[in-house]
């Protein structure tokens, strides 16, 4: 079986200095596309489902599709990761489904919107770490709030990760990886002008903590994709993302996990819009979901090469969840 923990894949990536993309999935075609790209480029891979994605699929549907990816790809190290868990309950639900890694985003309250306090974050993160580690499952936490630097650091809306606070947080929670805020945000509208990331903050954090660092909101929103969407009737004026060169710089400075959802959505949407525009007589879902799947595969192949993940699938013998559990319990 190719299921591995988040800790295993990310520690390996950190040691070798490459990035691993964590790609969001909602359906079969997305999972197949990502796995086809991983196989083609021989990359370890993280497939992640958000709370919303799990709920949309009534949990088991998406959980079992993700497991199918593991059965189909015995030679590829795969992490099944919960993206943006918001409570111990959400983590337990994912772990019960067989996930090997969970995020607890305690930087926000359970509503997923309101910024929390440091103490709240510590408490909820610790509860997830205790439950997850006893079962061999890795935990990603988050400190700081996402948002563009232009949106006003310190305005209450966003705040970049405080390196000293990050150091304390890691020591107090025993998490396996940490998502930080350095100016990225979720979605297709990240920057008002040019991309602006706080690399100095990233450097400081890297110097103070020793676990893998995670970057959310890392889609590049390439002009070719939004151009295609707009060309075929979409409306996404002014969409911007994080240029690949900035992501490569971030990887160099110590980011190991790179979260990508928006770019995948754009690739699917562009391909589907194209079919609908060029072949309005088509109505078989395979006629538009098939090309969408191919477009997503190609996008992820490029990312796997650009992040440096390509070729690293066989670097290590994946451990079983049982072995990983022993590792945590012997600490
Ligand atoms: O961070 C993400 C998922 O957790 C996705 O970010 P993007 O919206 O930039 O793809
Ligand atoms: O972090 C956000 C991810 O892009 C997942 O988005 P979602 O909650 O709409 O599934
Ligand atoms: Zn967050
Ligand atoms: Zn995110």
TrEMBL record:
<feature type="binding site">
    <location>
        <begin position="259"/>
        <end position="262"/>
    </location>
    <ligand>
        <name>dihydroxyacetone phosphate</name>
    </ligand>
</feature>
<feature type="binding site">
    <location>
        <position position="216"/>
    </location>
    <ligand>
        <name>Zn(2+) 1</name>
    </ligand>
</feature>
<protein>
    <recommendedName>
        <fullName>fructose-bisphosphate aldolase</fullName>
        <ecNumber>4.1.2.13</ecNumber>
    </recommendedName>
</protein>
<keyword id="KW-0862">Zinc</keyword>
<feature type="binding site">
    <location>
        <begin position="217"/>
        <end position="219"/>
    </location>
    <ligand>
        <name>dihydroxyacetone phosphate</name>
    </ligand>
</feature>
<feature type="binding site">
    <location>
        <position position="84"/>
    </location>
    <ligand>
        <name>Zn(2+) 1</name>
    </ligand>
</feature>
<feature type="binding site">
    <location>
        <position position="105"/>
    </location>
    <ligand>
        <name>Zn(2+) 2</name>
    </ligand>
</feature>
<dbReference type="GO" id="GO:0004332">
    <property type="term" value="F:fructose-bisphosphate aldolase activity"/>
</dbReference>
<dbReference type="InterPro" id="IPR050246">
    <property type="entry name" value="Class_II_FBP_aldolase"/>
</dbReference>
<keyword id="KW-0456">Lyase</keyword>
<dbReference type="GO" id="GO:0006096">
    <property type="term" value="P:glycolytic process"/>
</dbReference>
<dbReference type="InterPro" id="IPR013785">
    <property type="entry name" value="Aldolase_TIM"/>
</dbReference>
<dbReference type="InterPro" id="IPR011289">
    <property type="entry name" value="Fruc_bis_ald_class-2"/>
</dbReference>
<feature type="active site" description="Proton donor">
    <location>
        <position position="83"/>
    </location>
</feature>
<feature type="binding site">
    <location>
        <position position="142"/>
    </location>
    <ligand>
        <name>Zn(2+) 2</name>
    </ligand>
</feature>
<dbReference type="InterPro" id="IPR000771">
    <property type="entry name" value="FBA_II"/>
</dbReference>
<feature type="binding site">
    <location>
        <position position="186"/>
    </location>
    <ligand>
        <name>Zn(2+) 1</name>
    </ligand>
</feature>
<keyword id="KW-0324">Glycolysis</keyword>
<dbReference type="Pfam" id="PF01116">
    <property type="entry name" value="F_bP_aldolase"/>
</dbReference>
<feature type="binding site">
    <location>
        <position position="187"/>
    </location>
    <ligand>
        <name>dihydroxyacetone phosphate</name>
    </ligand>
</feature>
<comment type="function">
    <text>Catalyzes the aldol condensation of dihydroxyacetone phosphate (DHAP or glycerone-phosphate) with glyceraldehyde 3-phosphate (G3P) to form fructose 1,6-bisphosphate (FBP) in gluconeogenesis and the reverse reaction in glycolysis.</text>
</comment>
<dbReference type="GO" id="GO:0030388">
    <property type="term" value="P:fructose 1,6-bisphosphate metabolic process"/>
</dbReference>
<dbReference type="GO" id="GO:0008270">
    <property type="term" value="F:zinc ion binding"/>
</dbReference>
<keyword id="KW-0479">Metal-binding</keyword>
<comment type="similarity">
    <text>Belongs to the class II fructose-bisphosphate aldolase family.</text>
</comment>
<comment type="pathway">
    <text>Carbohydrate degradation; glycolysis; D-glyceraldehyde 3-phosphate and glycerone phosphate from D-glucose: step 4/4.</text>
</comment>
């Amino acid at each position: 079986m190719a299921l591995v923990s988040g800790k295993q894949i990310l520690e390996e990536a950190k040691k070798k200095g490459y990035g691993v993309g964590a790609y969001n999935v909602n359906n079969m075609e997305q999972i197949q596309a990502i796995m086809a790209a991983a196989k083609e480029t021989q990359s370890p891979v993280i497939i992640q489902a958000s709370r919303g994605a799990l709920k949309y699929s009534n949990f088991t549907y998406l959980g079992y599709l993700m497991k199918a990816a593991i059965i189909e790809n015995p030679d590829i190290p795969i992490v099944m990761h919960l993206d943006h868990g918001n409570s111990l309950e959400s983590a337990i639900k994912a772990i019960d489904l067989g996930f090997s890694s969970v995020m607890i985003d305690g930087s926000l309250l359970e509503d997923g919107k309101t910024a929390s306090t440091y103490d709240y974050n510590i408490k909820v993160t610790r509860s997830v770490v205790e439950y997850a580690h006893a079962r061999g499952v890795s935990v990603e936490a988050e400190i700081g709030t996402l948002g563009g630097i232009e949106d006003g650091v310190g305005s209450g809306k966003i705040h970049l990760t405080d390196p000293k606070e990050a150091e304390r947080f890691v020591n107090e929670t025993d998490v396996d990886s940490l998502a930080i805020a350095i100016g990225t945000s979720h979605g297709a509208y990240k920057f008002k002008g040019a991309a602006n990331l706080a690399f100095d903050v990233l450097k400081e954090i890297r110097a103070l903590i020793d676990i893998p660092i995670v970057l959310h909101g890392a889609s590049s929103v390439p002009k070719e994709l939004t151009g295609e969407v707009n060309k075929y009737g979409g409306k996404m004026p002014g969409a911007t993302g994080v240029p690949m060169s900035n992501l490569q710089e971030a990887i160099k400075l110590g980011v190991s996990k790179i979260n990508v959802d928006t770019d995948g959505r754009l690739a699917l949407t562009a391909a589907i819009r194209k079919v609908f525009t060029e072949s309005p007589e088509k109505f078989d879902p395979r006629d538009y979901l098939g090309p969408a799947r191919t477009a997503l595969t190609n996008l992820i192949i490029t990312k796997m090469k650009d992040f440096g993940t390509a070729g690293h699938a066989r670097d290590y013998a994946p451990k079983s969840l049982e072995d990983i559990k022993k590792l945590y319990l012997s600490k």
